[in-house]
Amino acid sequence: MIRTFDELERMAKTKPSLHLALAMAEEADSLKAVVLAAKQGIVEPILVGREQAIRDIAAKEGLDISAYRIEPAEGEEHSAARAVELVRKGQAAVLMKGRTPTAVIMRAVLNRHGGLRGPGVLSHVSIIQINTYPKFLLMSDPGINIAPDLQTKAAIIENMVYVAHKLGIERPKVAVIAAVEKVNPTAMPATADAALLSKMSDRGQISGCIVDGPFALDNALSRKSCETKGIETEVGGDADALLMPDIEAANVFYKTLANLTDAKISALTIGADVPVVMTSRADSDAIKYLSILGAVSIA
Predict the structure, then answer these.
(1) Which of 42, 50, 40, 95 is CA-nearest to residue 76?
(2) Along the 299 residues of the chain, how does pLDDT read in single tens digits?
(3) Structural domain of residue 93, as residue ranges?
(4) d(C-alpha 28, C-alpha 171), whole Å
(5) Exposure pattern of 259-298 as b/e (b: 16+ CB <10 Å)?
(6) Which end of the chain has the smaller Cβ count within 10 Å, N or C?
């Protein structure tokens, strides 16, 4: 079971390097992350975008990109489409979002005539390491599914479980988050979804994990909180993964960790034919590097 990004980095270095297509590479933090990953022997970058702009940013940041392939593309749509095409043709095994907005890269991934859409639901999975918690914590979905219904939530859980298994977590404990730990279907529909997902797990409709909920966030992460509130659970206080009720809760949680704590975060999109490094354009180069590690480790 992998518990830290140092362990994840060591594992990634033992694998053959993978070609990574960076869509709209004219963005400093993405370039820095990709160059660092290349220096570690983890990826072989293909930089997609306006060549002169890419070279200008690299020079300004003191980055040597002379050994890397540059694929010319003009603008957001063209860069995203070209990067996806490289992956679809087998020239890259990982797709990464650079300066391209999330909506643009997602349109290219989901394009029915040349995209990378897999058979299931696409969702954003965050891998989080924070020194107040003893192991990796997965969280979804802060970036793609806005107000998922019950079936979509089940599919999002399956994507998190896929990542958890790749990290060596054999039977991940999934906590379904709401504002409270009591089921209140009229005022708080998310609590009813949580109870149904828990029962679906009990009956084998969601496999490879233990699902329980609803949990308020403190119940999911603190055994003491569960004991204080009289909650008997295998999951509470020891969760491996958090399913948030909607994109607003998940996005606020993600950006709170990214901007107000020393948490280390890897941000991925799961459910396409290949893993997609899907960070916020405002994320640091450190988060983007860790996201590359995550993508390479599950590719």
Answers:
(1) 50
(2) 899 999 999 999 998 999 999 999 999 999 999 999 999 999 999 999 999 999 999 999 999 999 999 999 999 999 999 999 999 999 999 999 999 998 999 999 999 888 998 888 999 999 999 999 999 999 999 999 999 999 999 999 999 999 999 999 999 999 999 999 999 999 999 999 999 999 999 999 999 999 999 999 999 999 999 999 999 999 999 999 999 999 999 999 999 999 999 999 999 999 999 999 988 888 899 999 999 999 999 88
(3) 5-118+272-298
(4) 38
(5) eeeebbbbbbbbbbebbbbbbbeebbbbbbbbbbbbbbbb
(6) N
CATH code of 293's domain: 3.40.50.10950
Query: What phi-psi label fits residue 195: left (phi over 0), alpha (psi between -120 and 50 degrees) or beta?
Result: alpha
CA-based nearest residue to 48, from 69, 66, 18: 69
248 and 129, same domain (yes or no): yes
Instruction: Compute how many other C-beta atoms are within 10 angstroms of the C-beta atom of residue 17.
Output: 17
Which structure tokens are listed for 129? 């390491």
- Return the closest-CA partner of residue 264 out of 2, 1, 4, 40: 4
CATH of the domain at 197: 3.40.718.10
Q: Which residue stretches of 40-188 are H helix?
A: 51-61, 75-88, 102-110, 150-166
Secondary structure (DSSP) of 41-64:
TSEEEEEEE-HHHHHHHHHHHT--
